[in-house]
Amino acid sequence: MGEKIHVVTSSETPWIYGNLRLTRGVIEEVERAGRAAYARDEEACGYIEGPLTDALLGDRAVELENLANKYHAIDPEGHPRTGREYFKINGMKFEKALRQSGEQGRAVKVFFHSHLDCGAYFSEEDARSMTMDGGEPSYALAYLVTAVDKGEVTAHKLFIWDPSSRGFTESPFEIVD
């Protein structure tokens, strides 16, 4: 028989309700990724994980490659938007990260991405990307959007799924040392 893998369920995911604590190191890594991606003329994207023993703490940020520009270069008609306008990740790598974090007593709690020169907000495209065709969210996560304006980080906003409005709403979060 194969090894039993612990899969985190929605009853074990209090981070989806917001009010997270993100370490200063996590925010610095998200900001570094955002500025570097801005220099490449694309959105940064990645995830924040933390220990299952402290469900509202995010203590590690991992940047993912934004594949949008590569897809656009190969097939501009089929992929008309560039990485400046949206992000596209390797879904298999992300699914693997979700699985592996659970095996290590940790959890992916937040998906992060940046917006270039337009502020930190949860766009309609973000909502489509993070839900199953406008339905329920694809993952039990909170979502951090970072504004990078003229190459500098100007804001961070955390968003969570609100089942009553069937949309994403802003949630407070705290930066901790």
Question: For this structure, what is the CATH homologous superfamily?
Answer: Cytidine Deaminase, domain 2
Averaged pLDDT: 91
CATH class: Alpha Beta
CATH topology: Cytidine Deaminase, domain 2
Strand content: 25-35%
What overall geometry do the principal axes of the alpha carbons give?
Answer: globular
Strand order of the largest sheet: 4-2-5-6-7-8
Distance between the termini: 43 Å
Q: How are helices and strands ordered from N to C?
A: EHEEEHHEHEEEE
| Domains, number | 1
Class derived from helix and strand content: alpha/beta
CATH architecture: 3-Layer(aba) Sandwich
Keywords summarizing the entry:
disordered N terminus; alpha/beta; 177 residues; Cytidine Deaminase, domain 2
Please give a structural write-up.
This protein is an alpha/beta fold and 177 residues long. The chain contains four helices and nine strands; from the N terminus they run βαβββααβαββββ. The protein has helices at 24-39, 68-74, 91-103, 124-130, and strands at 20-23, 45-51, 57-58, 60-64, 106-116, 142-149, 152-162, 167-171, 173-176. It has a six-stranded mixed sheet. A three-stranded parallel sheet has the order 3-1-9. The protein is globular. The N and C termini lie far apart (43 Å). The model is unreliable at 1-10 (pLDDT under 50).
